Amino acid sequence: LSESVTQERRPPKLAFMSRGVGDKGSSSHNKPKATGSTSDPGNRNRSELFYTLNGSSVDSQPQSKSKNTWYIDEVAEDPAKSLTEISTDFDRSSPPLQPPPVNSLSTENRFHSLPFSLTKMPNTNGSIGHSPLSLSAQSVMEELNTAPVQESPPLAMPPGNSHGLEVGSLAEVKENPPFYGVIRWIGQPPGLNEVLAGLELEDECAGCTDGTFRGTRYFTCALKKALFVKLKSCRPDSRFASLQPVSNQIERCNSLAFGGYLSEVVEENTPPKMEKEGLEIMIGKKKGIQGHYNSCYLDSTLFCLFAFSSVLDTVLLRPKEKNDVEYYSETQELLRTEIVNPLRIYGYVCATKIMKLRKILEKVEAASGFTSEEKDPEEFLNILFHHILRVEPLLKIRSAGQKVQDCYFYQIFMEKNEKVGVPTIQQLLEWSFINSNLKFAEAPSCLIIQMPRFGKDFKLFKKIFPSLELNITDLLEDTPRQCRICGGLAMYECRECYDDPDISAGKIKQFCKTCNTQVHLHPKRLNHKYNPVSLPKDLPDWDWRHGCIPCQKMELFAVLCIETSHYVAFVKYGKDDSAWLFFDSMADRDGGQNGFNIPQVTPCPEVGEYLKMSLEDLHSLDSRRIQGCARRLLCDAYMCMYQSPTMSLYK
């Protein structure tokens, strides 16, 4: 189905948007995504890696008797053995273990060798290529042979290999970082008993050809993009694992293959464990929620909501009512006993449990693709909370005195303020409410705020400061508020005074009767239109006269982030500003395309240091210099989640 048809089948998202109603400006739900690293370079024994940087033949060099290996050895193969398998027709010289002196790279010496790693560097034409100055494996670089290219048809070979690769397959060659490309040719060149694959690489690589090898053309592509390797060194491109048949991944998740990754079932209701106790349970590899087959949006959202917060635990406990869907109890029991409780006690939930939830989500009409496709957290929350569990809306928002609108999260849409380098969540929320004339009809117990960004790529601000505490007092209707000038009971609010630099610029302006009169006597404010503040009818007179105007504050407990279509989570496990954990459901990989993702939870106390910085210092700080995981928190925030310690007792 086309993307437009797919969008029409999806149920509407119950999110309040300050400007307009609808989805984000762009969508990429059907885009293939990375499902995690396919290998751990640090844990495997790497053989020496050799490949041709131009594939042309050269005259034999007298200085060495060893053989020049111009193709990639199998990872687990003995390099010395593979060297002996090459025909004697090939030149006999071996690459040195150290770079030669600079003066050796002259036109007089036709054979050069440099050890280098596949570090991507910008080419002179602006494209990204592999730098020949730092390869982790040894390579041989030969100057181009001036002999004319011979057009020769490739030798016929059996299609594919044990991985099912054939001409046209997307493939990768495991290195650090790996090569990615499309197989354009498979065959056995004359004088060689090894089956090779000719890859057209995604990026240019210094020394690669345009499809020729040893003077013979096997296919045609752009210059510096043709690489010839052993076919058995190729693997299917792990970044596009989602392109394999959907049923296979769903069935495999419930097969015996996942036996070593199963998690427990816990019937007993379990509150989250905080501080040191929670830290000991949760951190490490194989901790958190295991990702599988585009599930990161769901894994990270559940981890944010339940790992260290109980603000939504009522969702897990409400008895079934007659209007609930038939699979209400099944869903609630799965969430409570197989996901939330085991996560809090053992710190781990396997992908099999999450797949069960994903299958239930697809039972909702027009909610297709939850077992296989990329989704957004708001889509997941909408289906789970509204259509299945019938959760009472978390937010009740009124616009300009109109009817209250119910929603589960608040989407910030706003124009960029060029004067602000790094906005805070407090500022963004106030700006959005002021510009759209909104007020909370009730104080929420849980407030989920979606950042001002469109799609997965475009961000309105390069950095956003996640306010640890959110004061929503001035955003509530029927709530006593302080005068911005004298601190007395405010009677009037002026939206036009909001940006006035003479009166606490960037703050919501409300005044008592006396201060309101004085402020609007100024010539530049004479034409301001101010409105009366909505107050409770039974407000005791003595309360505000004795400075007893209460504040409604909320605490940040989790931040959901996204970078290149992959969702991760930051959660706060204690009261200290540095008590942060970073969760990635696909942090590592056990095996290749048919392997398993390994989730990981990591302490990131460095976040606390950046949250102590001034906004000016944070704005001037180069994002590339931000240490550890903190960069993702500050630069890639997608949703910020707040809870009210007092209101959660009543809602």
From TrEMBL:
Subunit structure: Interacts (via CAP-Gly domain) with IKBKG/NEMO (via proline-rich C-terminal region). Interacts with TRAF2 and TRIP. Interacts with PLK1, DVL1, DVL3, MAVS, TBK1, IKKE and RIGI. Interacts (via CAP-Gly domain) with microtubules. Interacts with HDAC6 and BCL3. Interacts with MAP3K7. Identified in a complex with TRAF6 and SQSTM1. Interacts with OPTN and SQSTM1. Interacts with CEP350. Interacts with RNF31; the interaction is indirect and is mediated via SPATA2.
Subcellular localization: Cell membrane; Cytoplasm, Cytoskeleton, Cilium basal body; Cytoplasm, Cytoskeleton, Microtubule organizing center, Centrosome; Cytoplasm, Cytoskeleton, Spindle
Comp. bias (Basic and acidic residues): 1-11
Span list, region Disordered: 1-67, 87-106
Family: Belongs to the peptidase C19 family.
Enzyme Commission number(s) from the entry: 3.4.19.12
Keyword flag GTP-binding: no
Bias (Polar residues) ranges: 25-44, 53-67
Gene Ontology MF annotations: cysteine-type deubiquitinase activity; metal ion binding
Catalytic activity: Thiol-dependent hydrolysis of ester, thioester, amide, peptide and isopeptide bonds formed by the C-terminal Gly of ubiquitin (a 76-residue protein attached to proteins as an intracellular targeting signal)
Ribonucleoprotein found in the keyword field: no
Domain USP: 287-645
Topology versus the membrane: Peripheral membrane protein
Protein name per UniProt: Ubiquitin carboxyl-terminal hydrolase CYLD
Domain CAP-Gly: 187-230
Ranges in a coiled coil: none
